[in-house]
Specification:
Blueprint lengths: L3 H14 L5 E6 L12 H6 L4 E7 L2 E6 L4 E5 L5 E5 L10 E7 L4 E5 L6 E5 L25 H9 L5 H6 L9 H11 L12 H20 L42 E5 L2 E5 L6
Antiparallel strand pairs: 1-6, 2-3, 3-4, 4-8, 5-7, 6-7, 9-10
The structure holds a DNA duplex (16 and 16 nucleotides).
DNA sequence: AGAACATCCTGCTAGC
DNA sequence: TGCTAGCAGGATGTTC
């Protein structure tokens, strides 16, 4: 499921294929994807506008339009964006939105589980983050994410560090895969209480967060066999080859050889090495 | 107020 | 072979 590295890979694809294009037609199929709006409202707001840039905050994609409004896209677990040249002959099952561009190509939004969402923000400050996303924590690849911020939010949380890493209002962009990989890289047990972390552990977690996410962006995200993430042109990510713990229960740790274990942390499967992580 | 759980949904898999 | 129960998970709303 798309987390920060996958969404950043999509953002780069959108920036390349979607920016400077004018939207000439919008078709919304079903009402669930645009649930904050009446379906017919979305084409009215978008058609005729030109995309000025494509941004991202955490797992949210933000398409800035020259009209001053922003289209926000969240893929949740199974949302997928694809740029195609019509006629599109692929499977249109689970197709929920179709944006036709002035170069005759189309941006398609698919989502089998329909958790994904598209909404339009018309709040002012057109260059800024939409008001709807104001409660999100800093994006870990931005300069707003500092060791001081991490230490501050950890100090007042008694829950497991893994839960805090997944809390989008604390840090925006980390999901279940990268949360486990970050804890492993930092040598910290995912079950460790956030408030109990030492300064040394906080520093390691902070460093690991940047390192793991940057490496994963370089490898264009993770594509797992059962959870089909694909980029905007239909290519797979490569970072799954570098996973050390995620979904590896029962296999030996690449560092010490002990078997990777699984534990549930607030309902989510978490994977860790009982020897390398303390 | 903070933490944990239920909910939305479909596709896949394990087990009979 | 075919059925079903169970699981997966991001964000939100609800409950304790």
């Amino acid at each position: 499921m798309p987390e920060l590295p996958e969404v950043e890979t999509l953002r780069r694809g959108l920036e390349h294929h979607f920016s400077r294009r004018r939207i000439v037609d919008v078709e919304i199929i079903g009402s669930r994807t645009v649930r904050r709006h009446a379906s017919e409202e979305v084409p009215q707001l978008l058609v005729g506008s030109t995309v000025s840039k494509c941004g991202r905050h955490g797992k949210y994609l933000i398409v800035f339009l020259d009209s001053g409004i922003r289209m926000v896209i969240h893929l949740r677990m199974t949302g997928r964006l694809e740029i195609v040249t019509p006629p599109f002959l692929g499977d249109i099952k689970h197709l929920h939105a179709r944006f036709r561009l002035d170069d005759d190509r189309e941006l398609l939004f698919f989502d089998p589980r329909t958790f994904g969402e598209i909404f339009i923000s018309t709040t002012k400050d057109a260059d800024q983050l939409p008001d709807e996303l104001a409660s999100l924590g800093p994006d870990p690849l931005s300069e707003d994410f500092t060791l001081e911020h991490l230490a501050k939010v950890c100090k007042k949380r008694n829950a497991a560090i893994k839960s805090l890493l997944l809390d989008q209002n604390m840090i925006a962009g980390i999901g279940n895969i990268y949360g486990d990989e970050i804890c492993y890289e930092a040598g910290v047990l995912p079950t460790k209480r956030a408030s109990q972390l030492t300064d040394g552990e906080l520093a390691k977690l902070y460093k690991a967060t940047g390192q793991i996410l940057l490496k994963a962006v370089e490898r264009k995200g993770s594509t797992l066999s059962d959870k089909k993430y694909l980029d905007i042109t239909g290519s797979e990510g490569q970072y799954q080859k570098h996973h050390r713990v995620y979904a590896k229960v029962g296999t030996p740790c690449t560092c010490c050889g002990n078997l990777i274990l699984r534990v549930k942390i607030s309902g989510r499967s978490s994977y860790y090495c009982p020897y390398c992580q303390k």
